[in-house]
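Re: [ENG-882] Designed sequences occasionally contain unexpected residues at chain ends

Forwarding the minimal case from QA. C-alpha cells:
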C-alpha cells in the first residue's frame, strides 16, 4: 500500500512535502553509516554484499561478504524528513514524494 502524497505546513507556516527513502544503490553506497546514525526510525541497516550482488545479514560469514553497505530495513517507518540524504557523502539514495 502506497501512501498518498502529503503536503503539510512547517511551524513557520511554509509548505513542506516529505520525500521518502525509496532505495539505496548498492554500487554507490560505501557503508559509512552516516544515514543510519541520523535516522531514529530504523529505516536502514548495515548489510553485507556478496560477490554475486546478493544482500546478506551483516553478521553472516565474513568470507561471503565483499562489501558492507546500507540497505532498507523498514521502509514503511520512513517519515520523509530527508536527514539521511543530507549526510550521505555519495548521494546513493533515491527519495520521492508518494
Amino acid at each position: 500500500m502506497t501512501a498518498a502524497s502529503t503536503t503539510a505546513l512547517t511551524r513557520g507556516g511554509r509548505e513542506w512535502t516529505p520525500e521518502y527513502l525509496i532505495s539505496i544503490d548498492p554500487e554507490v553506497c560505501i557503508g559509512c553509516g552516516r544515514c543510519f546514525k541520523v535516522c531514529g526510525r530504523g529505516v536502514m541497516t548495515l548489510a553485507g554484499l556478496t560477490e554475486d550482488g546478493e544482500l546478506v545479514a551483516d553478521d553472516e560469514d565474513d568470507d561471503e561478504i565483499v562489501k558492507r553497505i546500507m540497505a532498507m530495513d523498514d521502509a514503511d517507518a520512513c517519515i520523509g524528513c530527508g536527514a539521511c540524504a543530507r549526510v550521505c557523502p555519495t548521494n546513493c539514495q533515491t527519495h520521492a514524494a508518494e
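QA comment: On inspection the terminal residues look reasonable. DSSP finds two helices and seven strands in the chain. Proposing we downgrade this to a documentation issue.
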